[in-house]
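Lab notebook page, bench 4
Experiment: in silico fold of construct C2
Operator: M.H.
Input chain length: 142 residues
Purpose: comparison with the prior construct
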Amino acid sequence: MEKDCGFIRGVKTFKFKDVEIRTSLIDHNEHLIDFTTAFEIKFGDFILYHTGDSGRGTEPKLNTVWGRPDLWLFFPGCGIDVRKAVKKVNAKRIVFGHLWELGHAQNHSGRLDERLIRPRLVQAKQAGCQDVSVAFWGDRIL
């Protein structure tokens, strides 16, 4: 379903010169099914996969069409099974993003890195991705 405002919902593929973008729907949580748009972006031989706020149970929906992503921007904080997701996507490099959003920090008592980030980094490595890191932008590290 498309609206005049440019809202895209569902599986679509767009091509802009040398860049192709494929969208798909994944779950944010058990209540918001097919709520989050995932983006698979291909330019040249480089494939970027961005799954936004993917959540619990969405692992079967993490389907890439152009092969193994070179970079996966992955938010592991909505209950997604990190080990299953990492094994399924099999990205060459993973960057955890969206973790330092202040709303997420407020929802976790204690230090965010110890309760949310560090265990997911370990899980990603245990699932086979040895190149995993955390993105920081616009945040202050205390």
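Observations: Residues 8 and 139 are 30 Å apart (CA to CA). The chain has one domain: 12-134.
Next step: discuss at group meeting.
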